[in-house]
Amino acid sequence: MTLLLEIWPAIQLTLALAAVTTLVLVIVGTPIAWWLARSKSRWTIAINALVALPLVLPPTVIGFYMLIFLGANGPGGWLAGLWGARTLAFSFPGLVIGSVFYSLPFVVQPLRNAFIAIGNEPIEAAHTLGAGPAQTFLRVAVPLARPGYLTAIVLGFAHTVGEFGVVMMIGGNIAGRTKVLSIAIFDYVEQLRWTEAHFIALAMLVFAFVALALTMSADRRISRIQP
Predict the structure, then answer these.
(1) What is the DSSP string of the chain?
(2) pTM
(3) Choosing a second label site near 61 at 20 to 30 A (CA), which of 98, 120, 165, 208?
């Protein structure tokens, strides 16, 4: 109970960051995934590579450049100045921006694959019946891509919960403001408090396993009932 009270602010911050980041990722990732799945532009390869970049870049590299971007001398500093702040770094909005970029491929790729799996027939049938692009997308493509959305949401949320390098670079280790659970584990290890570190790490491991297992199970069930 003492440990729970000690890490409760980090738990709240982690869940809030994961929830907001996942929401933004679904909103931003949906049009990107749809365009990547349907477009024949020569730019699709470049955009797809840019989206997938966090998969191969070290988190510290992404965090370093995001820190510059969000800092007082970058665009983030100008944006923060609109409400009297000096920088977006070392703040919750900064963590959200960094987390969105870092977790983007975990949402875009499942959505893109789901949109590709739909095929052309349902889209062409909707157009034949007089549906416009917006109606076709919202009433045909999105419902048929439900398994992709489920996978994207769970992966985006779970990946954000487990972030360390990017949030450490952007937010530092400010209790109650930027200290998430992954950073709390690092703190306990530095303090040689192995029991506390093990407890949090094991809980996050179980959470990740359960989230992925439930996603795979639900994905299979939805695929079976889809026409």
Answers:
(1) -HHHHHHHHHHHHHHHHHHHHHHHHHHHHHHHHHHHHH---TTHHHHHHHHHGGGTS-HHHHHHHHHHHHSTTSHHHHHHHTTT-S-STTSHHHHHHHHHHHHHHHHHHHHHHHHHHH-SHHHHHHHHTT--HHHHIIIIIHHHTHHHHHHHHHHHHHHHHT--HHHHHHH-S-TTTT--HHHHHHHHHHTT-HHHHHHHHHHHHHHHHHHHHHHHHHHHHHHHH--
(2) 0.89
(3) 208
